[in-house]
Amino acid sequence: MLHFFANPTRFQRLSRRVEPWLLAGMIVCFAAGLYLSLFSSPVDYQQGHTVRIMYIHVPAAWMALFCYTAMAVSAAVALIWKHALADVAAKATAPIGAAFTFLALLTGSLWGKPMWGTWWVWDARLTSVLVLFFLYLGYMALRDAFDEPGRGARASAILVLVGFVNVPIIKFSVDWWNTLHQPSSVLRMQGPTIHPDMLTPLFLMAAAFQLYYFWLLLVRIRRELMANRVRALRHRQAAAE
Amino acid sequence: MSAVSILFRRELRLALRQSADSVMVIAFFVIAVVLFPFGVGPEPNMLARIGPGVIWVCALLAAMLSMERMFLGDYEDGSLELLVLSPVALELVVCIKVAVHWLTTGVPLICAAPLLFVMMNVPEEVWPVLLWTLLLGTPALSLIGSVGAALILGARRGGVLLSLLVLPLVIPVLIFAAGAGDAVLFGDGAKANLMLLGGILLGSLALTPWATAQAIREAVA
């Protein structure tokens, strides 16, 4: 079934049908999520309105980890089954994941200044997310460092899998170390500790970010496939001359 | 004579023939550490406080300098393809190359370290712990660096790219090694940090030869 979608033409047809729905869903979720987070949700008893940064910061951080995991899965599928689209999906995801990581670091820093009194602290969670950002940059740099694109794809696939060890470290860093960053409040064994009034906008924003990611991923994969075709046509033209 | 010992002696002979590489690594290590008193001022207590961390960062950077050459020479003249095709397991070949790299880079770094302890005014009670961290950490650096060295074969600007790829992966080694030095300075035991360093070494010994061998196979395919 995996190889069903490896046919680029079939994939392009499917993605063109799915994309408008993703876009519509994303707009709805953003509208509802932003309204609830910025206007209708309660203020925090300690932080006041500053808590509203959470509705951007936490989904961005979740997406940063999700994108790296998606890249790792795509890289594994590409290396093991040589799936044509898995490589392209990993390449398309990398800049999106890097942007989400940067957004998480930036909004976290903006949140930390009023809350903790500092723009940055070298605790386990922040350090490991910064390492994740460097891993994204390293992936993109390695991918573009080769003249032959296939070699770049395979080398960077191995790099993603080697770096995947960082993802569980990020998730559990707040539990394993004494950190300034808040411990796990949502994905815990005992269930979330956040009130539903705040949990609903959080999940809506997370859904909006997810739909945005999938929509942008499909757009970027189509772009990559077209770029590959242009490259092949150019080669054929140069060989014919 | 077994294939392993033949390979080992070949690698060792090649590395020692280009002994300038090892000397350059040591020279960079010493010069980089020596720059810090010039930069932050020679006040002895402050140098002692930052000494373990500074020495470890410079050891890390010095190790990065020599990492690129692990497979590049053989890749460029075609012997890497022969090694891939040889009956010896590629993972074992990688282990031999990493061992020789450590012997010609890591061990000289450990030997040069006491001189730098003196220069950075590191207290005597911290010396054994720091030497232990170097003993446990430099092989881990060579192992994790070997993955990067194999990934950049054939890449443009491989040397700089190698540092960008490998340094995020070896940050845990740096954290625990410098943490061990700080732990002794502050009176706690360094045992936890040393155990974690040993764990990282054993883990990378188990996993990185396989990853490096895969990367080499992709490079010569």
Tell me what you see in this structure.
The complex is a heterodimer of chains A (241) and B (221). With 241 residues, chain A is mostly helical. In chain A, 77% of the residues lie in helices and 0% in strands. Chain A contains 7 helices and no strands. In chain A, helix 2 crosses helix 5. By secondary structure, chain B is mainly α. Chain B has one domain (2-220). In chain B, helix 2 packs antiparallel against helix 3 and helix 3 (44-67) packs antiparallel against helix 6. The relative contact order of chain B is 0.15. The A-B interface holds A 79, 127, 131, 134-135, 137-138, 141-142, 145-147, 151-152, 154-156, 158-159, 161-163 and B 147, 151-152, 154-158, 161, 164-165, 167-169, 171, 211, 214-215, 218-219.
Which radius of gyration of chain B do the C-alpha atoms yield?
A: 18 Å
Biggest pleated sheet of chain A: none
Helical amount among residues of chain B, as a percent range? over 70%
Report mean pLDDT of chain B, rounded to a whole number. 92
Order of helices and strands of chain B: HHHHHHHHH
- Uncertain runs of chain A are none
Q: H/E series of chain A, N to C? A: HHHHHHH
Distance between the termini of chain B: 30 Å
Low-confidence stretches of chain B: none
Strand content of chain B: under 5%
Helices, strands, pairings?
The complex is a heterodimer of chains A (241) and B (221).
Chain A: H1 8-40, H2 54-81, H3 84-116, H4 124-143, H5 149-163, H6 166-176, H7 196-240
Helix pairs in contact in A: 1-7, 2-3, 2-5, 2-7, 3-4, 3-7, 4-5, 4-6
Chain B: H1 3-17, H2 20-40, H3 44-67, H4 69-77, H5 79-85, H6 90-119, H7 127-151, H8 158-185, H9 191-220
Helix pairs in contact in B: 1-6, 2-3, 2-6, 3-6, 3-7, 3-8, 6-7, 6-9, 7-8, 7-9, 8-9
